[in-house]
Each structure stands twice: as structure tokens, then as C-alpha cells.
Amino acid sequence: MNHNKVISTLDVFSPGITYLRENNPNISYVLGEVGSSLNPVFNDYQLEGVLGSAMWTVDFMLYAMSKGINRMSMQLGLGFGYSAWQPIELNGTAPHVQAPCYSQVFVADFIGTAPEVQVSNIDLKRKNLSAYAGYESGKLAKVAVVNLDEWNSTTPRPRPVQAITLPIPQEVSQVKVEKLTGPGASSFDHVTWAGMSWTYANKGLGEQALNDTAVVEVVNSTVQLEVQSTEAVLVTMIRG
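RESULT FIELD:
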């Protein structure tokens, strides 16, 4: 959960991305096998299948897009701690959905369905806070903020909140704010995205677990956000 590490990891691909852009622009740059493996000996659900891992995945995927990486294939191996889910009983562990699944849905919603999407990294010069702007046909459509500060439900202090004043285009009067959240960085269960929960029990259809999505009025071309430690928010511009 360190934005500076995400930058240094992905910046090594810059020469190849630049070469393709300048010499073969029709060829996509793809990372074909990606995962947040934290233990080289064995897969660890408690390290890699939790909310903190989901925060890393959001930051990693969005920064990759801002660099010009066109596609990323996340590993989905049976028993992998960082997989989106485990579809069968394995070694005494029941089938379940893991936190990285939520991060991938978050990123998919950030991308959306517009035919022309550009992603820009907003350099906050913080190792534990990152932000990204998503443009559709040249207009700001979405902003993602990822609070990578590690906090657990067992931490003996209140959960910190990062206050952010977000500039909004003048023609936008409202924004929708959705959250990727859970009890803490080490949370394996009770993770939600836009209030939705996906489990083996609900057969992947999802169910509304929280009502934490809000439509916020824009005041003086700004919106005030509060992002808890180990939480990400997606702000979508409402036009028209």
C-alpha cells in the first residue's frame, strides 16, 4: 500500500510503451499476468485477499492506464490469495469471493462504456494517497481517490479521515460519490463497492449491503470529500 512503490514498479515499462506509441501505435501494450503476491513461498489469503490488497490493485491498475498500458490480465489461479474468488472448496476453505474482486469492479466502473477514455495520474506527491482523472472525449468524467493509509479494525485509534477539496468543471452541478470500503485493511469479509456485496451465497449476483452512495451538490465549482484510511472513492460528474 505505497503509491511510490506502484510508480517505481510500473515506470520500468515506460521505454517500451513509448517505443510502441511512436513506432507501432496500433499495437497494444499488455501486462498479461499480474497479481499482488506478497509471499513467495505460499499464497496467503490474509495478506493478499483482503481490503488492503484491493486498494493496491486499484492504484496499480489506474496508474498503469495513466502510463498508456492498454490492458492488464489479473491472475485468477485456484487457491491464489490475490485471485478475485475461489470457486470450489479447497484445503478446507469454502468457496468465496475475495476483496480483489471489488477492486476490479471499481476499475471497470471507472473506465465505463465510453468509446474514448483517457486516464491521468494526479500527482499528489504522497506515498499513501493517490488520485486519477478519467476523461471521456476530452471532458472530465470521473475522479478516483485512493487512500492507501493502512488502518485495521484492531488499530487502537480512531480511523483517520482525509479531507479533500475537489475542483469540479463549471458546467457540472452534481456528482455521484461511491465508495470501496470495509472494516479495515486486513478485512477479508464485509468489503463493499458502491454498497454492493458479492458472495458465493448470492451466486455472484450481488446484493445491497450498505446505502453509502451519495449525490453531492457542487458549491463554487468544488466538492468536499472525506476519504477514510484504507478506502477508495469514485466521483462521477453528473451533466445535463
